[in-house]
Design goal:
eight-stranded mixed sheet, 616 residues, five-stranded antiparallel sheet, single chain, BirA Bifunctional Protein, domain 2, Rossmann fold, RNA-binding, Threonyl-tRNA Synthetase, Chain A, domain 2, alpha+beta
RNA sequence: GCCGGCAUAGCACAGUGGUAGUGCAGCUGAUUUGUAAUCAGCAGGUCGUCGGUUCGAACCCGACUGCCGGCUCCA
């Protein structure tokens, strides 16, 4: 179906055709699948015996350059389905001419085009492709292009299908724009949280610990602690109650919740008691048999928790509940463990153990709308505090075709409607996406982009009519009857690991004062003023300002440079003049020299800046 | 998990078959400094791991581990 394309997308999509034509000049047997524009460029999926490597790029680019130089017109032609099929059979689609082997992927794509839709070919030079278009007028319009990287992709994104080679490239109307694009990418790489996390010693991932398991170094731990304090204070104001729960629980708990049966493969393997293992070993029980017996519940064990909700549910169930106690809001920075596929792990943004700023709200049906609303407002406020404005809101609905969900269709309808209503009240634009729900209910996700343009889900609010039923939760209503509560699962930041990862990139490591691991560094111009400098450090530390002093024998310029590179928000230069006047010479990370200020005045100023969580 | 690439000192990198190098960081000494790099010296590596080819391997081959880019997945 012809979609609306921007001019840039048209250009890039056209460049994908040029790429395909160039590849065919070198490898005429190449079979092409799809070649769309994407954010930042385009790709084309190709099946080819030759294993492409970046070393092939210059040769391919040379052919592409020849096609661009030839200034071939893009010609559109409407054809019948039969005619298209005929061309496909003779290998003529996505090809420079007839070939002995049919254009199999193109024929398959042709089958997917519904009756009544117009089928079009696009032709440039000898190259003919089945394509909805649109395209630029001619190949000569592509002034600047470059192949960027290789990847692999399953045909139609299904791992049962053949794996194709995906060649990525980009194109621009002018060379200058392309240069700017690559310069921007270089800048983005400098903000990458994996690089900054290492440079600034925020976190560490250690082979001896395990993939996807984060060690928070002291500097990173400060940032995390400040975030927890921030969220914690908000929650106290809003009537949440703090709880703590263990990292593991009996398998049966997660059988009841549905986590273990439905998502066994995305959890760390269960822990089985030693005596049970010995018993089974004596029976010569195979691993497969063991797994089976665990699955069937014949052997009990423990599971690292993949979610906190069952724990909070058991706290709810630990005493008789009355409607007077609702809404009951239980909050915890709860650490959960999930067995993510190794190829998916990435820095702090995709990990196997992470801590959610989690809470579960147990409420009545009448309270539901308001509770969702409050959660959304909280997420919103949190994002605004960091001025993370570049987010989108996604309403994740169930996929009617899938069986991975628990609960009745009526409950699902009810929950989905409640979410939709709440977002509409919030008055933000959102998209509804089928198949994005949690297994127990629909969710409203706040999705932000990282520096490289990849989407990450942060905050989430989820409505759940199902787990309370599975756990048989109840409370006594005002009418004396027993009722089932509704649950709201919510995490404004999502996971602290992912959130901090994105925060590092958002601020490029230049954290606002309240988050900065080191807030102030005192730089004596010589060791004669070490004692004076230390007295400032002592005084600032007493008021909780994170302050260090640089007592190295470097010259002041070198000390400044180091502090600047370490992204310390404020440098206080002290020498004879300051000592005599009881002042400090302030230099800020952001704007350089700020002049001299009495020691106590500056202290008050930064205390205010910290308390108000001012952004830099 | 799948496809491809990569792996040399804490970090950034050089080293295409003949006993491993540069810069920064580190340590020691000298210097005591006024707003983004003071000088000198020292130390630091089983070249990711294991196996193979070779008289000889950082370098060639294989397996494994980890990382990077994608794909699939993401309760």
């Amino acid at each position: 179906m012809p979609k609306e394309m921007t001019d840039l997308e048209k250009l890039r999509h056209s460049c994908a055709h040029v790429l395909a034509a160039a590849i065919l000049r070198i490898w005429p047997e190449a079979q092409f699948a799809a070649g769309p524009p994407v954010e930042g460029g385009f790709y084309y999926d190709v099946e080819l015996k030759h294993r492409l490597t970046p070393e092939d790029f210059p040769e391919i680019e040379k052919e592409m350059g020849a096609i661009v130089a030839a200034n071939q017109q893009f010609e559109r032609e409407e054809i019948s389905r039969d005619r298209a099929l005929e061309l496909g059979q003779s290998g003529r689609l996505a090809a420079l001419g007839a070939r002995p082997v049919p254009s199999k992927f193109k024929i398959d794509i042709l089958r997917e085009i519904s009756e009544g839709e117009v089928i079009t070919l696009y032709r440039n030079g000898d190259f003919v492709d089945l394509c909805a278009g649109p395209h630029v007028a001619s190949t000569g319009d592509i002034e600047a292009f470059k192949l960027t990287h290789l990847a692999s992709a399953f045909y139609r994104g299904d791992e049962r299908n053949p794996q194709l080679q995906r060649i990525y490239g980009t194109a621009f109307p002018t060379k200058q724009e392309m240069d700017a694009h690559f310069a921007m990418l270089e800048e983005a790489k400098k903000r990458d949280h994996r690089k900054l996390g290492k440079d600034l010693h925020l976190f560490h991932i250690d082979d001896a610990i395990g993939q996807g398991l984060i060690l928070w170094c002291p500097a990173g731990a400060i940032i995390r602690q400040e975030l927890q304090n921030f969220i914690g204070a908000e929650l106290r104001q809003q009537g949440y109650q703090q709880v703590f729960t263990p990292h593991i629980a009996k398998l049966d708990l997660f059988r009841t919740s549905g986590h273990f049966p439905y998502y066994a493969e995305s959890q760390f393997p269960p822990l089985v008691a030693r005596e049970n293992l010995l018993l089974l070993a004596n029976e010569n029980c195979s691993c497969a048999e063991l797994a089976n017996r665990i699955q069937e519940g014949e052997i009990d064990g423990f599971l690292l928790k993949p979610m906190n909700c069952p724990m909070h549910i058991r706290i709810f169930a630990s005493q008789p509940r009355s409607y007077r106690q609702l809404p009951l809001r239980l909050a915890e920075f709860g650490t959960v463990y999930r067995w993510e596929q190794s190829g998916e792990l990435s820095g702090m943004t995709r990990v196997r153990g992470f801590t959610q700023d989690d809470a579960h709200i147990f409420c009545s049906e009448q309270q539901l709308d308001e509770e969702i609303q409050k959660c959304l407002t909280l997420v919103n406020k949190m994002l605004m505090t960091f001025r993370m404005e570049n987010y989108r809101v996604r309403l994740g609905l169930r996929d009617p075709a899938s069986s991975k969900y628990v609960g009745t269709p009526e409950n699902w309808d009810h929950a989905e409607e409640a979410c939709r209503k709440a977002i509409q009240v919030l008055n933000v634009s959102y998209t509804e996406e089928q198949g994005e729900a949690a297994f127990y209910g629909p969710k409203i996700d706040f999705v932000v982009k990282d520096v490289l343009g990849r989407d990450w889900q942060l905050g989430t609010v989820q409505v759940d009519f199902n787990l309370p039923v599975r756990f048989g939760l109840s409370y006594k209503g005002a009418d004396g009857k027993s009722k089932t509560p509704i649950m709201v699962h919510r995490a404004p930041m999502g996971s602290l690991e992912r959130f901090v990862g994105l925060l590092i990139e958002h601020f490029a490591g230049n954290f606002p004062l309240w988050l900065a691991p080191e807030q102030v560094r005192v730089l004596p111009v010589s060791e004669k003023f070490a004692e004076f400098g230390q007295s400032i450090v002592d005084s600032y530390r007493l008021s909780g300002i994170r302050t260090l002093i640089d007592l190295s024998s470097e010259k002041i310029g070198a000390k400044i440079r180091l502090a600047q590179l370490e992204k310390v928000p404020y440098m206080l230069i002290v020498g004879g003049r300051e000592q005599a006047s009881g002042k400090v010479s302030v230099r800020s990370r952001k704007s350089g020299e700020e002049g001299t200020i009495p020691i106590d005045d500056f202290q008050r100023r930064i205390q205010f800046e910290i308390e108000s969580r001012e952004l830099c």
